[in-house]
Sequence to fold (494 residues):
Amino acid sequence: MRKNCYPLALSALLLATAASAQVQPPPAGKQPSPPPAPQAPAPASAAPTESVPYGAGLKVSLSPDGSKYMRFITWHQVWTRFNQNNSGSQHTSGDPQRNTFDVGLRRSRLILYAQLNPRFMVLTHIGINNQNAVGGGVGIGDPGKKPQLFVHEAVVEYKVFSQLSLGAGLHYQNGISRMTRASTLNFLAFDAPITNWPTIEKTDQFARYMGIYAKGRIGKLDYAVAVNDPFVTSPTATPATVPTNVAEYYPRNHSKNFQGYFAYEFLDQEANLLPYAVGSYLGAKRVFNIGAGFLFNKDAMFSRPGALPPPPTGQPGADPYSYVPFKTHNMGIWSADVFFDTPLNKEAGTAFTTYAVYYNFDFGPNYVRNIGIMNPSSAGGSAAIPGAGTLRGNSFPTVGTGSALYAQAGYLLPKNVLGPKARLQPYAAWLHGDYEGLEAIGAKKVNVLDLGANVLLDGHNAKLTLNYRVRPDYSNPQNINYRPEITLQTMVFL
Fold:
């Protein structure tokens, strides 16, 4: 492990050196300079007392008054990571690997949105995710190469009146929780727990749904509700392929799903033109929200309650749906959460952020799903949890019928701790999962701990995040081992 950590430490040292030499650009003025005039050198300006929470991106005005415009937001999140793999993991088939040191693209994205006038908006979001040397690509025979650039969102929206906007398309106006609609640009921790996107890449497309939505704000109550077409998933699953009394996504589901999220804003009002919920304002706002949300999909899941019967005599190729008894199950998810973010000392620049959420999941009997983000292993591993998938690399039971708790807190340290420009924000996060599919096989509950710190070179626009994670390895569910991960995330967004 020590040898593998040397490149990680060297990367952190080089990036910290770059931070100390960084020059802070002056804030842009409201009026553009006349094009023919040569640009004068910008006067030196004092470091801002507050970080910009989201930023407007690169804005192009399409009308003299700026009411018609287009904005571009682009970002990369690069992970340099050491991971102690789950038992039996293989880098590629036949190549056992206990520890992995890798570099990967966690996210590489571009958002374009425009308003023809204050009533109309069009939004396009494209990008890639989770590419490393062994996965994330679509290369023929080379699974890590040539990741698929795909559409994350494609939305048209019309503002009916001040309290109501209607939109349609592939959208991110998600229900369930604040973190289910989180911005990935300004997380407090290095990433989301993924439990917040419980249907990711199943009935949704990378946490987005095809549907119609309504959003708005009535007084201090912010809301978003949507009706969606769930994507067809698990097409090869049949009543004959699923484990006994373990739910799976129903390939023949054609019911709409319904979702919504409601948040009461007690203090400062948050922007809601775009769906992306801020993770940490770095002292720029005083926000205290209590929210609740839901997702419901009739007959989204199915299971086989009894033993597998033989095919009908003389019909070896008979459709299993015609002779294997099975049940369908509604998917029902709800959550309640609280978000608090406040400056503490304006002169010192300190701030505190915390978020906590409770999820209640009903996917049908004993459903559990293992997920490993940007998995460093492509083969091997254990399949010890019925129906949950392989436990290779860094995967663990992330979602399942039952409940989950997630909490995080961070403190923005005083200015000048890292010099005149960079800021330091340590944090801690904890995920707890209580899933009936684990209880059924005598396994313990899920606990994942993250400890880390953000080095904010220019607010969230340029930052380094160093995260230490302890996660459970369920390769032997009755004897869980805990494995370490160390991740250095380098992020810049414009």
